[in-house]
């Protein structure tokens, strides 16, 4: 039995939605800042094996854009980009998310993909801790199933272990 009270929990909601929840032992404002300030994000938001978050650009406002690019030592890059749909500091962050698999296919000026994933993260204070509720709504049941089966929760858990280390440093 997993006794880690800060584990990532996954709940399916219908065919296209997944809700991840996780507790952090830090104030809500700090957890929110770590999800929105590039100087913090670059320290914990790890990417695929061997890749680091090289580019972390964002305009944190409703309608603002963001771009997160990961790179490895050979120059390979991948990442995500999108538009912020809701920003309520330090309570909620909602955005679209599009994946960049090949940089040659990426056009920052192209219209947003109508099949983009919708995400929202809500940060709630519970005593001395923060509960993050992260909703992902995928374009289709197939994409949702693929994300769940690909181990999205495990990858998220790895990132959040890095965030735990950062939170200890800055609290």
Structure description:
With 171 residues, the protein is of the alpha+beta class. It is 26% helix and 39% strand. It has four helices and eight strands. Strand 3 and strand 4 form a beta hairpin. The mean pLDDT is 92.
Query: Pairing-aware structural class of the strands and helices?
Result: alpha+beta
| Radius of gyration, taken over Cα atoms and rounded to an integer in Å | 16 Å
DSSP strand count: 8
Order of helices and strands: EEHHEEEEEEHH
Distance from first to last alpha carbon: 30 Å
Which strand order do you get reading across the main beta sheet? 1-2-8-7-6-5-4-3
Mean pLDDT: 92
> What is the tally of helical segments?
4
**Shape label:** globular
The largest pleated sheet is described as: 8 strands, antiparallel
Task: Provide the low-confidence segments as ranges.
Answer: none
The percent of residues in helical segments reads: 25-40%
> Strand fraction band?
35-45%
Q: What's the short version?
A:
Helices cover 26% and strands 39% of the residues. The protein is α+β, with helices and mostly antiparallel strands and 171 residues long.
Topology (elements, then pairings):
Blueprint lengths: L8 E5 L3 E8 L3 H9 L1 H7 L7 E7 L6 E7 L5 E12 L3 E9 L16 E10 L2 E9 L3 H9 L2 H19 L1
Antiparallel strand pairs: 1-2, 2-8, 3-4, 4-5, 5-6, 6-7, 7-8
Helix pairs in contact: 1-2
Based on the model shown, name its key terms.
171 residues, alpha+beta, 8-stranded antiparallel beta sheet, 4 helices, 39% strand
